[in-house]
Amino acid sequence: MTSPIELQPEEFKAIGHQLIDMIAGFIGGIAHRPITTGKTAKELQQLLGSSSLPGEGTPAAEIFSRITPLLFDDSLLNGHPKFMGYITSSAAPAGALADLLAAAVNPNVGAQILSPVATEVEKCTIKWLAEFIGLDQGYGGLLVSGGNMANFTAFLVARTAKAGNAIKEEGLNNTSGRMLVYCSQNTHTWIEKAAALFGHGTRTIRWIPTDIFDRMDTVLLEKTIKEDLQAGARPFMVVGTAGDVSSGAVDDLRAIAGVCKTYDLWFHIDGAYGMPAAAVPGQQKVFDGMKEADSIALDPHKWLYCPLEAGCTLVKDPRRLLDTYSSHPAYYNFNSTEDDPVHNYYERGLQNSRGFRALKVWIALQQAGKTGYIKMINKNIQLSRLLFELAEKHPQLEAVTQHLSITTFRYIPLARGEDTQYLDKLNETLLNRLQLGGKVFLSNAVIHKKYCLRACIVNFRTSKKDIEEMIEIIVKEGERTHQYLSVPV
Ligand SMILES: *Cc1c(COP(=O)(O)O)cnc(C)c1O
Predict the structure, then answer these.
(1) Which of 46, 246, 476, 489 makes a 20 to 30 Å CA pair with 381?
(2) Which residue, judged by its Cα, is nearest atom 3 of ligand 1?
(3) What is the dihedral sign for C-alpha 102, 106, 110, 115?
(4) pLDDT value at 332 more than 80
(5) Quick check: helix, strand or coil at residue 206?
(6) What's the CA-to-centroid distance between 443 and ligand 1, angstroms?
């Protein structure tokens, strides 16, 4: 008798072939579906059937045929060409096949002995990612679940590097002076989680104000560090952001690198979103100084169009990862005569058992190649600029900011002046209506105290036509929203 979870090859094929056919149809027709149907959680529970845990088994084929259409019909489709919300990309279809293959083989990429080929694929992927964004050779790193984890991974490396074994063994109690981290006020919320997670506390974060271009004010950065040093604190790390989540602004990485050098601080770049743009000729000056970073976080599941989840931490001196995460760092054999040292990923990061998320990244990098990626990323930037220009020209739109592939703008009714409060409310209501409408999907950003619509294009399916149609959709819905809000109740 076979076990209840086994699938015999014939049954596996039958379910798999049907599933692949349905997925191909879904991807092929994604532009013609609503981005969201806006059903409530209650309605979805009803569709799912809120029965109790099944006692007896059900044939797998039945379960797949029930859940597949539900997922296609009622998910939020970030692969739709007019999806430009948050920073979630359209996913490379080959990534879906890669995940299937990875799960079928199921290597545990925590230890080399459990994943001989997969470990090599991940090492190669890390090398390619560093090369793609233009780093010199020698960087090491690993794949993690996303940007938060990539930044956490680097945070602990930074503090171990700057405080040594004392902190690894004795914790923060043994350090002289409070260990402080510096970042711009626009830094993503991961920094607060990291400060809490690693026991520093969120009050050890020094939020540095930004300039008119939304970049960290590096004069204030240096001034704050000096004051903290004089007060007996212990600065250890500066986080530069390469592509902030609201506006896409990239900090002055060169200036931050200079400050880090002067005060012997760890220089980390959070490039979860923006880093891949460093590969685009013409954008490289925006990232000037990045090569000075001790560590960099980037997300293949954002601007490299890999399906969730894939984040990446790169470290200039890979031994720092072992110092931090290996219990036996003496084991590492950098100066040994062995030309084939063991490469265990559990000794380089927070996870122990690890999935084979490298495969989808490795495949995507080859499918598109460096040239293909540069083209796609550059196209997203150009479309974002086009959106800004169209908004600038339109009498009912106000263009606010444009960096990398993020444009912020607002709807302004023709017959209404600068009533700030009303414009905020109008644009917030408009955004909610657009999101529920299912034709375009944007998110919001508050820029210089203005509530804005925000389009982040990390989508290889978006075209010029989508941008032009989107403008029309937004203006039409803006008129309706203004009318709706102006009607006295
Ligand atoms: C998206 C993002 C994060 C968080 O990454 P996740 O993959 O969502 O965990 C952190 N920082 C920046 C700048 C980001 O864009």
Answers:
(1) 476
(2) 147
(3) negative
(4) no
(5) strand
(6) 15
